[in-house]
Write a structure and sequence with these properties.
Protein name: TatD DNase family protein
Strand content: 5-15%
Bound molecules: zinc ion
Distance between the termini: 14 Å
Shape: globular
Strand order of the largest sheet: 1-2-3-4-5-6-7-8
Number of domains: 1
EC number: 3.1.21.-
Pfam families: TatD_DNase
Number of helices: 10
CATH superfamily: Metal-dependent hydrolases
CATH class: Alpha Beta
CATH topology: TIM Barrel
Keywords: Hydrolase, Metal-binding
Helix content: 40-55%
GO molecular function: hydrolase activity, acting on ester bonds; metal ion binding
């Protein structure tokens, strides 16, 4: 299995961790980035572990927008490292921080359009953080720019939007929350297996059965058990299908 969304740059002792994960049977991770510095770090990890790391670089939306200098440097980075990149991300629209600050959604919509144009120019998939009522806005931008491949990570959205995302052929991932949280279990019931990805968003900590367990791609083994049961399919078959989906987007 491949963890379809992890903040690998936020893990200390990453060399030791990767060795442990590989020994346990994890085939790789999609390492996403949150800003310019994080993008450099992700590319560094890609160079170090080329077979294991699928690199995505971008600016996380739940923070201030990048300044002009960072944006231009990032653009040059995309251009120079194009052949080492698997995607643009993590990008999208703020939701949680927007509730507590005076950020303007319009500025983020404009920025997401800029980033989407870059993804299209280099024919790279987009890793999206766009939840609740903002999922629909992000979806409209993907359609506007005719984006072929995109992944809505840790999605929470109204059913009508979930259905549209699926109809357009984009991918949706669930986190280990699917093992214990009804909202995610309901989401899963709408995702066809051929459009499902599994992720941890590590090092984000989970609760329920994962309280006090450090988040790592090893949690995917628990998620896949739940998912296989929900689809009434054999675990090996589900693992293979989800791996194939992940490679379809990121390879
Ligand atoms: Zn993330």
């Amino acid at each position: 299995m491949i963890d379809a969304h992890i903040h690998l740059d936020q893990y200390p002792n990453v060399e030791t961790e990767i060795k442990k994960w590989e020994e346990a049977g994890i085939k790789g991770v999609v390492a996403v980035s949150t800003d310019l510095r994080s993008s450099y770090r992700t590319l560094e990890l890609k160079l170090k572990f080329p077979h294991f790391v699928y690199a995505a670089i971008g600016f996380h939306p739940e923070q201030a927008l990048p300044n002009e200098t960072d944006w231009n440097e990032w653009l040059s980075l995309v251009k120079a490292e194009r052949h080492r990149l698997s995607a643009i991300g993590e990008v999208g629209l703020p939701y949680y921080t927007l509730q507590q600050s005076s950020l303007s959604l319009a500025n983020y919509v404009e920025f997401l359009e800029k980033v989407t144009e870059v993804a299209r120019a280099y024919d790279l998939p987009l890793v999206l953080h766009a939840v609740h009522e903002h999922a629909e806005l992000a979806l409209a931008i993907l359609r506007k720019y005719n984006i072929r491949s995109a992944h809505f990570h840790w999605l929470k959205a109204p059913l009508s939007v979930i259905e549209e995302i699926i109809q357009f052929g984009y991918y949706i991932s669930v986190t280990p929350e699917v093992c214990y949280r009804q909202r995610d279990q309901v989401l899963l019931s709408y995702i066809p297996l051929h459009q499902l990805l599994l992720e941890t968003d590590g090092p984000w900590p989970f609760i329920g059965p994962f309280t006090n367990i450090k988040t790592s791609p090893l949690l995917l083994f628990e998620s896949v058990k739940y998912v296989a049961n929900a689809y009434q399919k054999n675990i090996d078959i589900v693992q293979k299908e989800v791996l194939a989906n992940t490679l379809k987007v990121y390879q």
